[in-house]
Amino acid sequence: MKIALVTGISGQDGAYLAELLLEKGYTVYGTYRRTSSVNFWRIDELAIRSNPNLHLVEYDLTDLPSAIRLLKHTGAREVYNLAAQSFVGVSFDQPVATAEITGIGALNLLEAIRIVDPTIRFYQASTSEMFGKVQAIPQDESTPFWPRSPYGVAKLYAHWITINYRESYDIFGCSGILFNHESPLRGQEFVTRKITDSVAKIKLGKLDCLELGNIDAKRDWGFAKDYVEGMWLMLQADQPDTFVLATNRTETVRDFVAMAFKAADIEVAFSGEGVDEVAVDTATGKKVMAINPRFHRPAEVDLLIGSAAKAEQILGWKAKTSLEDLCRLMVESDLRRNQAGFSF
Ligand code: NDP
Ligand code: GDR
């Protein structure tokens, strides 16, 4: 039986990847961090928490001895390192913690692999945030990096140390440079889910107005469920490598706002500029979106659009879900949850 270790089981990707691996017959060890009240709402939504092949284990990413014990104890042959301080905005307020968790966390696992068994395969969750101030359009595996946040810089360290361990110790270390991927399991602090949850609340009369920061930012958004499949494919390949996963389509946050309201049968019109820009419900004349500079970042990533041509050619991976379908899925799920009083 195949055994996999997934760090960050309580996160969006951890939940979907665990679901996929269980479907494929793996025994999955999913790690979570110790807190006074751990929240497993995502694996509960996917109804996999009670699967006998899923084991939840406490693990601190910054503790190398724990990583060594974890690998010895689980016998994992594939390690997917998804745990991270993953919110770009917070990384400006907590840069050191972000470096230790998001950057050094990957090194601890690679060191543990080197010590315990260098044939264990390793997946590192790299990110399009490493492209930051983009040097080419679209971005692919050969595009130079220019991260724009402490998060992006920490991820760049983890990316390069994965490549370094591949080259130095022949470890099967893959780095997936994934562009933004969303789902009904996305955290509410990220812009798409913040929008779909707020749209649902506005539709149900529970909220008047959604507040956002930079709505000119452009992102290449895909569906998380499609992307975890790409992670698995990378670790099944003949050679360890670096792959971009993306949809090759980019839209502004403003476009996503309009799309989400449309999915809830609300038509909106935008007017004004900069911090004075608003969106108004054309049927009622009510303001449903406004700008709050509190959500602006010290440095912004303006435009991301990726080419996943290499992943398609070598892994046979391609994004399957359109942004319209993804957005509708998220709005419908947030409408259901808000009707039921769900608050995650
Ligand atoms: P989430 O924020 O949903 O999940 C992050 C996970 O990391 C959670 O399980 C979280 O635990 C855990 N974590 C956070 N801090 C710590 C810590 N100090 N110690 C241990 N665990 C911790 O992220 P996603 O699922 O969206 O992303 C998965 C990975 O992929 C992340 O590394 C992210 O940076 C990266 N990535 C994500 C992209 C995306 O668009 N989603 C794109 C590219 C890369 P808890 O639940 O307790 O907070
Ligand atoms: P991002 O995602 O920073 O791309 O990182 P996020 O959804 O947080 O922001 C996307 C863009 O929207 C703009 N924005 C807002 N963002 C948030 N969160 N809240 C707002 O109110 C708001 N208003 C405008 C942001 O400025 C930004 O330009 C995500 C994370 O999942 C990372 O872990 C991952 O590596 C990258 O995607 C790829």
UniProtKB/TrEMBL annotation:
Check the record and name the CDD domains matching this protein: GDP_MD_SDR_e
- Domain (NAD(P)-binding) ranges: 5-330
Protein EC: 4.2.1.47
Catalytic activity line of the entry? GDP-alpha-D-mannose = GDP-4-dehydro-alpha-D-rhamnose + H2O
Please verify whether the record's keywords include NADP: yes
Q: Which UniProt keywords apply?
A: Lyase, NADP, Nodulation
Q: From which domain of life does this come?
A: Bacteria
SUPFAM superfamilies, per the entry: NAD(P)-binding Rossmann-fold domains
Keyword NADP attributed: yes
Q: Cofactor(s) for this protein?
A: NADP(+)
Q: Name one GO molecular function term.
A: GDP-mannose 4,6-dehydratase activity
- EC category name: lyase
Mind listing the GO biological process terms from this record? Answer: 'de novo' GDP-L-fucose biosynthetic process
Under the heading Pfam families, the entry gives:
GDP_Man_Dehyd
Which InterPro entries does the record cross-reference, listed alphabetically? GDP_Man_deHydtase, NAD(P)-bd_dom, NAD(P)-bd_dom_sf
What is the role of the protein in this entry?
Catalyzes the conversion of GDP-D-mannose to GDP-4-dehydro-6-deoxy-D-mannose.
Which PANTHER family does the record cross-reference, listed alphabetically? Answer: GDP-MANNOSE 4,6 DEHYDRATASE, GDP-MANNOSE 4,6-DEHYDRATASE
The entry's family comment says: Belongs to the NAD(P)-dependent epimerase/dehydratase family. GDP-mannose 4,6-dehydratase subfamily.
Q: What is this protein called?
A: GDP-mannose 4,6-dehydratase
Species = Sphingobium algorifonticola
